[in-house]
Design brief:
two-stranded antiparallel sheet; about 200 residues
Length: about 200
Protein backbone atom coordinates (compact mmCIF):
# COMPACT_ATOMS: atom_id res chain seq x y z
CA UNK A 1 0.00 0.00 0.00
CA UNK A 2 1.20 3.51 -0.87
CA UNK A 3 2.69 5.25 2.19
CA UNK A 4 0.76 8.42 1.32
CA UNK A 5 -2.54 6.54 1.56
CA UNK A 6 -1.53 5.15 4.95
CA UNK A 7 -0.80 8.64 6.30
CA UNK A 8 -4.03 10.08 4.90
CA UNK A 9 -6.19 7.27 6.30
CA UNK A 10 -4.41 7.58 9.66
CA UNK A 11 -5.16 11.32 9.68
CA UNK A 12 -8.84 10.66 8.94
CA UNK A 13 -9.06 8.08 11.71
CA UNK A 14 -7.32 10.47 14.11
CA UNK A 15 -9.91 13.11 13.22
CA UNK A 16 -12.77 10.75 14.04
CA UNK A 17 -11.12 9.75 17.33
CA UNK A 18 -10.74 13.41 18.33
CA UNK A 19 -14.39 14.03 17.49
CA UNK A 20 -15.48 11.02 19.55
CA UNK A 21 -13.41 12.15 22.54
CA UNK A 22 -14.82 15.66 22.37
CA UNK A 23 -18.37 14.33 22.15
CA UNK A 24 -17.82 11.96 25.07
CA UNK A 25 -16.48 14.81 27.18
CA UNK A 26 -19.77 16.73 26.96
CA UNK A 27 -22.47 15.32 24.62
CA UNK A 28 -24.93 18.03 25.73
CA UNK A 29 -22.77 20.89 24.43
CA UNK A 30 -23.68 22.21 20.98
CA UNK A 31 -20.02 23.18 20.44
CA UNK A 32 -18.87 19.63 21.17
CA UNK A 33 -21.58 18.09 18.96
CA UNK A 34 -20.73 20.43 16.07
CA UNK A 35 -17.01 19.66 16.34
CA UNK A 36 -17.82 15.94 16.30
CA UNK A 37 -20.05 16.32 13.23
CA UNK A 38 -17.31 18.38 11.60
CA UNK A 39 -14.79 15.56 12.07
CA UNK A 40 -17.32 13.08 10.64
CA UNK A 41 -17.75 15.31 7.57
CA UNK A 42 -13.96 15.50 7.20
CA UNK A 43 -13.79 11.70 7.36
CA UNK A 44 -16.33 11.13 4.58
CA UNK A 45 -14.89 13.96 2.50
CA UNK A 46 -11.41 12.41 2.84
CA UNK A 47 -12.65 8.94 1.91
CA UNK A 48 -14.35 10.36 -1.20
CA UNK A 49 -11.06 12.07 -2.06
CA UNK A 50 -9.22 8.74 -1.84
CA UNK A 51 -11.68 7.03 -4.18
CA UNK A 52 -11.71 9.96 -6.62
CA UNK A 53 -7.99 9.57 -7.38
CA UNK A 54 -7.93 5.78 -7.31
CA UNK A 55 -10.60 4.84 -9.85
CA UNK A 56 -9.85 4.06 -13.49
CA UNK A 57 -12.96 4.92 -15.53
CA UNK A 58 -14.39 8.29 -16.53
CA UNK A 59 -17.83 7.58 -15.05
CA UNK A 60 -16.57 6.51 -11.62
CA UNK A 61 -13.99 9.32 -11.54
CA UNK A 62 -16.66 11.94 -12.20
CA UNK A 63 -18.95 10.33 -9.62
CA UNK A 64 -16.32 10.46 -6.87
CA UNK A 65 -15.14 13.98 -7.73
CA UNK A 66 -18.73 15.17 -7.44
CA UNK A 67 -19.05 13.30 -4.16
CA UNK A 68 -15.96 15.11 -2.83
CA UNK A 69 -17.75 18.39 -3.46
CA UNK A 70 -20.97 16.94 -1.99
CA UNK A 71 -19.28 16.34 1.36
CA UNK A 72 -17.52 19.71 1.14
CA UNK A 73 -20.90 21.46 1.52
CA UNK A 74 -21.75 20.16 5.03
CA UNK A 75 -18.08 20.63 5.88
CA UNK A 76 -18.38 24.36 5.15
CA UNK A 77 -21.73 24.75 6.90
CA UNK A 78 -20.63 22.82 9.98
CA UNK A 79 -17.50 24.95 10.05
CA UNK A 80 -19.62 28.09 10.15
CA UNK A 81 -21.93 26.69 12.83
CA UNK A 82 -18.98 25.57 14.95
CA UNK A 83 -17.19 28.91 14.78
CA UNK A 84 -20.44 30.82 15.38
CA UNK A 85 -21.50 28.64 18.34
CA UNK A 86 -18.13 28.24 20.11
CA UNK A 87 -17.86 28.25 23.14
CA UNK A 88 -21.61 28.12 23.90
CA UNK A 89 -23.39 24.98 25.04
CA UNK A 90 -26.51 25.72 22.97
CA UNK A 91 -26.96 26.67 19.34
CA UNK A 92 -27.44 30.49 19.20
CA UNK A 93 -29.42 30.44 15.95
CA UNK A 94 -33.22 30.94 15.75
CA UNK A 95 -35.29 27.98 14.50
CA UNK A 96 -36.31 29.77 11.28
CA UNK A 97 -32.68 30.55 10.43
CA UNK A 98 -31.77 26.90 11.00
CA UNK A 99 -34.36 25.85 8.41
CA UNK A 100 -33.01 28.40 5.94
CA UNK A 101 -29.45 27.13 6.44
CA UNK A 102 -30.63 23.53 6.01
CA UNK A 103 -32.49 24.42 2.80
CA UNK A 104 -29.51 26.27 1.29
CA UNK A 105 -27.15 23.43 2.22
CA UNK A 106 -29.52 20.86 0.71
CA UNK A 107 -29.78 22.78 -2.57
CA UNK A 108 -25.99 23.13 -2.73
CA UNK A 109 -25.48 19.42 -1.99
CA UNK A 110 -27.90 18.34 -4.72
CA UNK A 111 -26.16 20.72 -7.11
CA UNK A 112 -22.78 19.10 -6.45
CA UNK A 113 -23.94 15.64 -7.51
CA UNK A 114 -25.77 16.93 -10.56
CA UNK A 115 -24.26 17.26 -14.07
CA UNK A 116 -24.17 21.03 -13.52
CA UNK A 117 -21.25 21.18 -11.10
CA UNK A 118 -18.77 19.28 -13.26
CA UNK A 119 -20.26 18.62 -16.67
CA UNK A 120 -17.69 16.07 -17.87
CA UNK A 121 -14.02 15.13 -17.84
CA UNK A 122 -11.86 16.86 -20.41
CA UNK A 123 -9.37 14.00 -20.17
CA UNK A 124 -7.84 11.39 -17.87
CA UNK A 125 -9.23 9.36 -14.96
CA UNK A 126 -8.45 9.15 -11.26
CA UNK A 127 -5.54 11.36 -10.22
CA UNK A 128 -4.99 12.55 -13.82
CA UNK A 129 -8.63 13.53 -14.47
CA UNK A 130 -9.45 17.04 -15.61
CA UNK A 131 -13.09 17.85 -14.73
CA UNK A 132 -14.87 20.69 -16.50
CA UNK A 133 -16.80 23.06 -14.15
CA UNK A 134 -20.38 23.90 -15.10
CA UNK A 135 -22.86 26.61 -14.06
CA UNK A 136 -23.62 24.75 -10.81
CA UNK A 137 -20.17 25.80 -9.60
CA UNK A 138 -21.65 29.26 -8.96
CA UNK A 139 -24.12 27.77 -6.46
CA UNK A 140 -21.40 25.78 -4.72
CA UNK A 141 -18.92 28.66 -4.60
CA UNK A 142 -21.38 31.26 -3.35
CA UNK A 143 -22.66 29.07 -0.50
CA UNK A 144 -19.30 27.55 0.48
CA UNK A 145 -17.34 30.80 0.42
CA UNK A 146 -20.06 32.68 2.32
CA UNK A 147 -20.17 29.98 5.01
CA UNK A 148 -16.39 30.00 5.33
CA UNK A 149 -16.14 33.80 5.49
CA UNK A 150 -18.90 34.04 8.11
CA UNK A 151 -17.18 31.35 10.16
CA UNK A 152 -13.80 33.07 9.96
CA UNK A 153 -15.39 36.41 10.88
CA UNK A 154 -17.09 34.79 13.89
CA UNK A 155 -13.91 33.28 15.30
CA UNK A 156 -11.91 36.47 14.61
CA UNK A 157 -14.51 38.44 16.55
CA UNK A 158 -14.33 35.99 19.46
CA UNK A 159 -10.55 36.32 19.59
CA UNK A 160 -11.19 39.93 20.63
CA UNK A 161 -14.21 39.32 22.86
CA UNK A 162 -13.26 36.24 24.88
CA UNK A 163 -10.85 36.21 27.80
CA UNK A 164 -8.76 33.66 29.64
CA UNK A 165 -8.89 30.00 28.63
CA UNK A 166 -11.72 30.58 26.13
CA UNK A 167 -9.64 33.21 24.32
CA UNK A 168 -6.70 30.79 24.12
CA UNK A 169 -9.02 28.11 22.73
CA UNK A 170 -10.38 30.61 20.20
CA UNK A 171 -6.84 31.40 19.06
CA UNK A 172 -6.06 27.72 18.50
CA UNK A 173 -9.34 27.35 16.63
CA UNK A 174 -8.48 30.34 14.45
CA UNK A 175 -4.98 29.04 13.72
CA UNK A 176 -6.29 25.60 12.80
CA UNK A 177 -8.96 27.20 10.65
CA UNK A 178 -6.52 29.34 8.68
CA UNK A 179 -4.09 26.48 8.08
CA UNK A 180 -6.84 24.04 7.06
CA UNK A 181 -8.57 26.28 4.57
CA UNK A 182 -5.30 27.60 3.14
CA UNK A 183 -4.32 24.01 2.33
CA UNK A 184 -7.78 23.06 1.04
CA UNK A 185 -8.00 26.08 -1.24
CA UNK A 186 -4.38 26.03 -2.36
CA UNK A 187 -3.89 22.30 -2.90
CA UNK A 188 -7.37 21.00 -3.70
CA UNK A 189 -9.98 23.54 -4.73
CA UNK A 190 -8.09 25.96 -6.99
CA UNK A 191 -6.08 23.26 -8.82
CA UNK A 192 -9.32 21.41 -9.60
CA UNK A 193 -11.44 24.40 -10.59
CA UNK A 194 -8.89 26.58 -12.37
CA UNK A 195 -6.51 23.97 -13.79
CA UNK A 196 -8.75 20.90 -13.81
CA UNK A 197 -6.05 19.05 -11.87
CA UNK A 198 -7.23 16.91 -8.90
CA UNK A 199 -3.81 15.31 -8.29
CA UNK A 200 -3.37 16.90 -4.85
Amino acid sequence: MNIGIVFRIAALIASIVIGALVYRRNPRSATNVLLTLFTVAIFFWGIANEFSVGVTTSETTLFWIRLVMFFAVPLCFLFFLLEYTFPRSSLPIPQRSRWVLALVATIAMFTTISPYLFTHLREGTGATAKPVPGPGMIVFLSTAILAILLGVFSILKKNWQLRGLEQLQARYLLLGTLVMFALILGLIFFPVVSAGNPAF
